[in-house]
Structures are given as structure tokens and as C-alpha cells.
Amino acid sequence: MRHLPALLLAASLLAPAAARGDGPAPAPGAQARPALEVTIDRSRVDLKGRQIEVKLSRAASKVRIKVLGQSGAVLAEEEKPFSGAAAGTPLVVTWSPSSDETVGRIEVYGHDTEGYWAGIAIIPWNVSIPHEEVQFETNSDVIRAPEVPKLEASLQRISEVAAKARELGKITLFIVGHTDTVGGVEHNLALSRRRARSIAAWFKGRGLKLPVAYEGLGESSPIVKTADQVDEPRNRRVDYILSIEPPKLPSGEASWKSL
Fold it and tell me: What is the pTM of this model?
């Protein structure tokens, strides 16, 4: 499989440029006009619904997008007019792909009403790593010796997947801890966070070169919905996600922590 070239995921990825020249130089003493900025709310990128939400820092004339697959093939090119929508207005653009290939990159070009444009690109690639769950003792975040082979197997899978996708960009391992409903909400939140951090530290201590981020969600995202104080092993789990863009977390105080 041919991979996309590694790229920085920042507004400077596609440098702002003028579609009809850079315009006249500002008069002496005049304040330079801020560059046109295009921003994308990562939480509003809907790959299944095939739509993206864009904002411009100036009144918008139109938005163009190019959607590429992981092979580098162009899956869609769309252009939508916005007739002078005010700066900061959410601009929704949808696309119809030419195939079911997984999206590897989305390029977005925003045009203002004066003929200037700027671009940005995102790489929504991510992979959830299947693994055998580490079993912790009650209220503990200590990794016991019998559980180490599980982590060793997971580390090998993580390293293999990351190596195959390294040309896509800077890959990070994101680790999310979960609990069942036994115990208090705040206690479970703290416990899930400590366990996620413990596993993250184990991977780094065993030589994982990837950046690692972690967070705990406690009992807030169960696989199996249960009543309070129910011992459900399937809800006591940790997710391993390889991604370039930080995966979306529930709103609130949840945020990725770097190890």
C-alpha cells in the first residue's frame, strides 16, 4: 500500500496565499491585516456522515475540500459557496466518495469575499489495538507480574501497526481507562486514570518510542449499561488507540495527559 507523505497537522501545513495576489503593501504606520485563518473543529469531523465543519476568520465566499484515501487516491473534491457568511460562522461541507476506501487525509481551502484563500489539512487515521485486558487487584493500579505477558503482546502489536503507518505523520498512543459501577463516581474516575497512566508508564519503560497520552473516564462510558454497584468485567477495560489527531473525549473535565 502506498502511504501519504508525512505532514505537519497545523494551520501552516497549507500556507495562506492570495488567489489574486498579496494585495498592496499597508501604508506607513498602518497596522498589517491579520492573515486569513481556516480552522476545523476536530470533534465535528464526521467521517461516517461524510461532513466537516469549517470556520474562517473573515467573511466566507466558499470552501473547497479534497478527500484522499489511505492509498493516496482522491475520493472526492467538493466546493460549496457561502455568500459572505460572517467570520466565525460554522460552515458545513459534505462529500460523496468515489469508493469505500478509508479516508487518509482531508484538505480544506477557505476563500474569503476579497479573493484570498488559506488552507489546512487533517489526517483522521486511527486504529484501535485489540488486546487482552490487564487484571488489577481491587483499588490498585499496580501491574502484577502475571499480567506482564499481556502487555508484552500488546506492545508488539502497537509497534507493528505504528511501523506500517509511520509515513502518515506523527503517531501517538492514546490510552483510556474505564471501570464498572462498583464504588463512587469520583473514586472510579481517579482509579481509571491511575490505571491508564500505569499502563502508559509500563509501555514507555519497555522502550516504546511513540508519544503516549492517557486519560481515565471511570464508569461514564460502559460497554454494558448496568445499574449502580454492579460488578461487570466487560466494563473494566483499557482502550489502546493509535492516532495522529487526538481522539475525541467526552465534554467536561476529561483531557489527554502526556506521560
Answer: 0.73
